[in-house]
Design brief:
Helices cover 53% and strands 0% of the residues. The protein is built from 5 helices and no strands.
């Protein structure tokens, strides 16, 4: 695939399937990333592969932190704080509920 074709056909993914990525695919992606050019070949990157178990733990921590944070704020102050944020909401849902859902699910990532 040519670079321009990759740019033209790219798309954003908003939801992911709940299926493990094969180890071979992950290793292939990491190998390709290591081959990417960098200024003066410094290669300043670090890669982290996170599996579902850890994402579930992070999601639980975020949910608890969100609940804690919300418990100390008034509903009006929360609404004012998030009114201009681009929070994804379901049809008929308010931004405050959308924010809670986002934190509980990591945006469905």
């Amino acid at each position: 695939m040519e670079v321009i074709e990759a740019i033209r056909t790219r798309r954003s993914i908003r939801r992911y399937v709940k299926k493990a990525v094969p180890r071979e695919v992950i290793l292939g992606l990491l190998e390709a990333a290591n081959l990417a050019p960098t200024a003066t070949n410094r290669q300043p990157w670090a890669f982290v592969v996170v599996n579902r178990f850890y994402l579930d733990q992070i999601s639980e921590l975020l949910s608890k932190a969100f609940t804690e944070r919300v418990s100390t704020a008034t509903e009006d102050s929360m609404r004012a704080a998030i009114k201009d944020l681009p929070i994804p909401v379901e049809r008929g849902e308010e931004k405050l509920a959308g924010l809670g859902r986002f934190y509980r699910t990591l945006g469905d990532a």
